[in-house]
C-alpha cells in the first residue's frame, strides 16, 4: 500500500518529465536537421564555386 502511494505522487517532477521529455526530443531533432541543412548548403556553395571540385579558384 505504501509503495502504491509513493508511485502515485512524486511531488511533481514526474509530470515535468512528461512535458520536458518530448519537448527536448523535438528540440534535439530540429537541431540535427538544421545542422545537416547547413552542412549541405555549405557543400553546395563549395561545389558551385569550384565546378571541378578541386577547391582552387581559376586564375
Summarize the topology.
Elements: H1 2-8, H2 13-49
Written account of the structure:
The chain is an all-alpha fold. Helix content is 75%, strand content 0%. The chain has helices at 2-8, 13-49. It starts with a helix and ends in a 10-residue tail after the last helix. The model has no long low-confidence stretch (mean pLDDT 80).
List keywords for this structure.
mainly alpha, 59 residues, single chain
Quick one: how many beta strands? 0
pLDDT averaged over residues? 80
Range of helix content: over 70%
Radius of gyration: 25 Å
What's the short version?
This protein is mainly alpha-helical. It has helices at about 1-10, 15-50.
Amino acid at each position: 500500500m505504501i509503495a502504491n502511494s509513493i508511485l502515485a505522487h512524486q511531488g511533481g517532477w514526474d509530470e515535468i518529465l512528461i512535458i520536458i521529455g518530448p519537448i527536448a526530443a523535438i528540440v534535439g531533432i530540429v537541431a540535427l536537421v538544421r545542422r545537416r541543412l547547413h552542412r549541405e548548403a555549405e557543400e553546395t556553395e563549395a561545389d558551385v564555386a569550384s565546378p571541378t571540385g578541386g577547391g582552387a579558384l581559376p586564375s
